[in-house]
Amino acid sequence: MSALREALGELPDAVFADVLENDEEYLLVLDLPGVHADTVDVSASRGRLRIEARREKSVPREFQYIEEGRALFLDADFPLPPDASAEGASASVDRGVLELRLPKRERGGETSIPIEGSGSTESEGSAGGGGVDTDGEPDAEDDRSNGSATS
């Protein structure tokens, strides 16, 4: 998640952002004054989150710009946290605050993966009595397979 924090630190000074989390999801909150739901686009692809937002500024007709310091457009690209999923994500905008909820992926338990191939010692050992004797002493089973008997 440190990559996401670093990316948020590179936002323009006028954009403030928080990242919160609980056991089920992440919550990304961005202050985007003047932005409405129809002026924001959020998309996710290949582990990246893209936010494009623009705000409308009205300028009184009797005035003209000498200097324009309030940005009209935000185009930001962030890495998603490794356990975040864009599937099931939701976003809302209320009074210029964008809230983006990203569910966490379920962490599965350990899964055993079967290995295929030739030369399995289990099949060789059980087929012809050629198993491995771990104690080095002759067993009754060893004697029977060799044709000798113990009295």
Tell me about this structure:
By secondary structure, the chain is an alpha+beta fold. It has a domain of 92 residues: Sandwich (Immunoglobulin-like). It has three helices and seven strands; from the N terminus they run αβββββββαα. The strands form two sheets. Strands 1-2-7-6 form a four-stranded antiparallel beta sheet, with no helix packed on it. A hairpin with a 3-residue loop joins β1 and β2. The longest helix is centred in the first third of the chain and has 8 residues. About 6% of the residues have low confidence.
Supply database-style keywords:
151 residues; alpha+beta; Immunoglobulin-like; 4-stranded antiparallel sheet; 3-stranded antiparallel sheet; 3 helices; 7 strands; 15% helix; elongated
The CATH first-level class of the domain at 12-103 comes to: Mainly Beta
How many β-strand runs? Answer: 7
Largest sheet: 4 strands, antiparallel
Shape: elongated
Q: What is the percentage of strand-forming residues?
A: 25-35%
Topology at a glance:
Blueprint (H helix, E strand, L loop, with lengths): L1 H8 L6 E6 L3 E7 L8 E6 L2 E7 L18 E7 L10 E5 L2 E7 L17 H8 L11 H6 L6
Antiparallel strand pairs: 1-2, 2-7, 3-4, 4-5, 6-7
